[in-house]
Amino acid sequence: MPIVGERPAWRDTFSSLRVPNFRLFTIGHIVATTAIGMQRIAQDWLVLELSGSVAAVGITVAMQFAPMLLFGLLGGVIADRYSKRVLLMITQSLAAVLAVALSILTLSGAVEVWHIYVIAFMLGLVTVVDNPARQVFVNELVGPARLRNAISLNSAVFQLGQLVGPAVGGVLITAVGSGWSFAINALACSGVVLTLALMRVSELVPTPVVAKAKGQLKEGLGYAMRKPAIRWTVIMVAFMSVFAFNLPVLLAAYASDVFDIGASGYGFLNALVAVGALTGALASTRRGGVDLRIVIVAAAAVGVLQAAAGAMPVLLPFALLLIAGGVANLLFITAANSLVQLSSNMAIRGRVMSLYILVLLGGQSIGGPLMGWLVEVAGAHVGMIVSGGVPALAAACIGVRFLLLRRRKRRAAEERQRLAEAEKNPGNPGSTAADVR
């Protein structure tokens, strides 16, 4: 599919929402991703209250994302083999059960840190199947005509929920406590199952189901690595997920140690990122197309803004940089998601997206404890600077390599053109093919 196009007309900014099934799916997707973000922030803050350790919060993040790192590619194979709608109904039902269990443990006062670790890991196992199925299901909802718009909107909703969820979770922690936050998450997951059940199955655009065969994991990985647009995007996402996408860990340290603003302040800091993300989500739907340059520039912007926030000693400039970082964050993730999906063949897209999500979420299982340890050793400011500085440096290196490759290709094309012109005019002195060679 084409990966670069014209900017859509204003009336077509949300054209994919004209499809009834996609409207239902988007409502459910907003609820699902926001609910998961709420649960993450509530469980992280609960761990901080129980243990008093930012490193323990990092371990919680690692437990939730480790299954994606370990089994992520298998999730893509499952998404390619079975009905995406049925898979999503199963995964959301399981997520609701886990939220109920954590709610009961918390409200009864019996919860311990190891309980949260176990439930976070089990929720991560659910995510292994849920995320690739959710990404690829978009193809069946809208068909090829509106697919680019639907992918952009879907990836915006996905990341927006990841950023808005913590903000809502922070408010709920203050208003009703962590236990009731988990109960609300269970209701939200049940609502997602309902939206999937209400879809008009006859209006879905079926995609080919991949038969079970040997070597499908290797096939998907090889396909992704052979395509530069996918390969370099995944590498950039790896740097971002390990360092830049662990803001909940860093903001917990800022709320408790730097600005001393407690749980409500923690929710406020996450809300600032969400405000920027909402702006970025709206901007991403106006984008005509994506290419690798957009991904690299957006990643560099996220890194620079986050590093600059780490250097701010007072709350106001720190808050403004969080908003700007939220905008850049959303623009990066929607560009990366769209480029990977639109650059991959339908028959293998589930496996390609599972690799992408493995890196996106699995990288956070490494980055969570890493950034938690760094904050405890060197402080929140150093942690924030490193979280932005490393991705910014990586974007610069990839950008330089990208420019050098383009220059080399341009010179090769010019050389071929001179050779062709020389062969067309063999009588011109100094213009023979031999001279050009």
TrEMBL record:
Kindly indicate where the leader peptide sits in this chain: none
Question: Where is the stretch described as Disordered?
Answer: 415-437
Give the Basic and acidic residues compositional bias ranges: 415-424
Its domain of life?
Bacteria
Main localization is: membrane
- How does this chain sit within the bilayer? Multi-pass membrane protein
Q: Where found in the cell?
A: Cell membrane
Mind telling me which CDD domains this protein's record contains? MFS_MefA_like
Entry annotated with the keyword Signal: no
Supply the Gene3D superfamilies for this chain: MFS general substrate transporter like domains
Q: Which residues form the Major facilitator superfamily (MFS) profile domain?
A: 21-411
Keywords in alphabetical order, please.
Answer: Cell membrane, Membrane, Transmembrane, Transmembrane helix, Transport
Checking PROSITE patterns in the record gives:
MFS
Residue ranges spanning the membrane: these are 21-42, 54-79, 86-107, 113-129, 150-173, 179-199, 232-255, 261-282, 294-312, 318-340, 352-375, 381-404
Q: Quote the protein name from its UniProt record.
A: Predicted arabinose efflux permease, MFS family
Q: Which organism is it from?
A: Plantibacter elymi (nom. nud.)
